[in-house]
Amino acid sequence: MNKTLPAIAAAALMGLSATASAQVSSPIIPLPLNPVVDSAHRTCTAKTASGLGYTVLRAAPATAAKPGDADVVLIDYLGYLAASGAVFDQAQRTPMPVSGVIPGFSEGLKLAGKGSVMRLCIPAAIGYGAQASGPIPANSDLVFQVELLDFKSMAEIEAMQKQMEAQKPAEPQPAPK
Fold first, then answer.
1. Backbone conformation region of residue 100, classed left if phi is above 0, alpha if psi is from -120 to 50, else beta
2. Which of 26, 57, 107, 170 has an alpha carbon within 20 to 30 A of 33's alpha carbon?
3. pTM value?
4. 83 SS3 class
5. 133 versus 25: which is more confidently predicted?
6. Which helix (DSSP H) or strand (DSSP E) does residue 110 occupy?
7. d(CA 78, CA 55)
């Protein structure tokens, strides 16, 4: 039996442990997540005129493009209640139309440059308001961590769909009898 293998494995695990410790101090919450987010990750440092709070956790390059109302974004996100930290939704590599989400989320997406990670603190008034939605109680302030992976215009998406359809192989015809 190779006696150096356990030593190498132990060193590798110690290296992973150090990496994991370094990640704990990061302001970015890794996905998937446990069902409750601690209070340190439920606040934002800046605010827009509408009341949307936001914190840039990882800035995009200064020249990074930002999505608009007519775009569809590809995001990783985590949604949780501001009051308790209870996670109500999370997904990775999810396409969403910028104009097809709650107003505070839409506003936050338009602030994000491609490649950025942001925390959005959405007051109930620009969230779901007085209406409950699934696990979200009425009048709830919400927090989302959002990573903007990419975005495309609807025209680009439609062109891609047409191109994919054109590249599909033809259906085989039944053999004559």
1. alpha
2. 107
3. 0.74
4. coil
5. 133
6. helix 103-111
7. 14
Domains of the chain: 36-154 (3.10.50.40)
Of all residues in the chain, the percent with pLDDT exceeding 70 is: 83
Give CA–CA dist 144/130, Å, rounded.
Answer: 19
CA–CA distance, 124 with 52 (Å, rounded to integer): 10
The tokens of 81 are what?
């209640």
Q: How many Å apart are CA 99 and CA 69, to the nearest integer? A: 5
Q: What single-letter amino acid sits at 174?
A: P
- The answer, yes or no, to whether residue 115 has pLDDT greater than 70, is yes
> By C-alpha distance, which of 134, 59, 71 is closest to 100?
71
pLDDT band at 2 (very low <50, low <70, confident <90, very high): very low
Give SS3 for 70: coil
Three-class SS string for 1-62? CCCHHHHHHHHHHHHHHHHHHHHHCCCCCCCCCCCECCHHHCCCCEECCCCCEEEEEECCCC
For residues 107 and 2, which has the higher predicted lDDT (pLDDT)? 107
Instruction: Identify residue 120 by its one-letter amino acid code.
Output: L
Query: Could you give the angle at the alpha carbon of 71 between the alpha carbons of 116 and 55, nearest 5°?
Result: 25
Looking at residue 34, what is its pLDDT?
61
| The token pair that represents 134 in the structure block | 């699934």
